[in-house]
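Shipment paperwork, digital attachment
Item: protein structure file
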Amino acid sequence: MGKKTLHFHIGSHKTATTTLQNALAANGDLLARAGLLYPKSGRYFSGHHPLALQLRDPEQRNQPLEALGDWPELLREIDASPARDVLLSSENFEWLQDLSRLQGLSRRYRVRVLFYMRNPASYLESFYNQLVKDLKTREARTLETYICEHGLFFLDNERLLRRWSDTFGAPALQVRLYEKSLSAKTLLSQFLQMLGCQNPPRLVLPQSPALQKISLPPDALEYLRLRNLHRAPPKGQHRITMTLAQIAQTEAAALQRSRAGLLSVAAQQNLIRRFAAGNLRVARAYLGRDRAPFDPDQARAHANFDQRLAQGDDVMISRVEALLSRFARTRPPPRDPAPSAEPGSSDPSCCDPPAADQPSPPLQFPTD
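Attachment content:
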């Protein structure tokens, strides 16, 4: 009998990884009976984030994989399972700089790597939204300033994938384009097909996303950014963020006066062009295409973008606070009992979800 296949789902961030992980974790027994193991070892809620974070821990950089954190237990679980396919999923894998300790896995398993690419403009808008909301980062810069001051290394798909192809060989990589319009059911079906599951069992899908994963409409996001800018105390911030996420589900149309977190058409086009050459090489290597997957000419303006406020004013702040006040009088306090499947999504060095109303350490991006 040949080697088992070990699949690494490495991201990228903001490509419905949480949705996929929640579905996989909720259907672990069904998948195992169908021959796919979604290990419990090294899993934090629904994703295998600790496995990636332990590899990034500088205090454990000399530990071999067989003695590192949850990895020994994981290897035992894989070897004990009758399943021929094994899936590890964490978007924190994409930020690993040193894959040398994973290289030895090729002697035990047939390694495959799964990766979704997203349009860099919509990716950045979604990622920035999370940065502002997250108690671990509390981003206070405008999106325009963030772009100017940050290297945006996480949008460099070619560089990211090169590390994995150098470690396991280019044929081990499967790359797909992320389509935001796809339903969760279709996305999960296509994902399982990438794993080789042509006739997967009937799976139960999560009913709704975690509140902290919902992208806030512009005024709600700008309200939080201004709180961050003026160093409002973190006490109450988590409750406010979750309340705004609830409001966004029903009253997003009332929160469109500013353009916080949104890119102009020109900014979208510049961002796509900035990474076009690398994405073209990725498309040639892994997608069988001879053109870049994202076309700057297809960028579309957000509604009434030029008429919106560049930054929030007193009227906007008052509107948001009025909504918060009204919501507090008519609804129970928001609860989000299931933490995000990518804890510390905007902080790859972090493993714990933000505790409500507790201060968090500053963002520590990996150097790249």
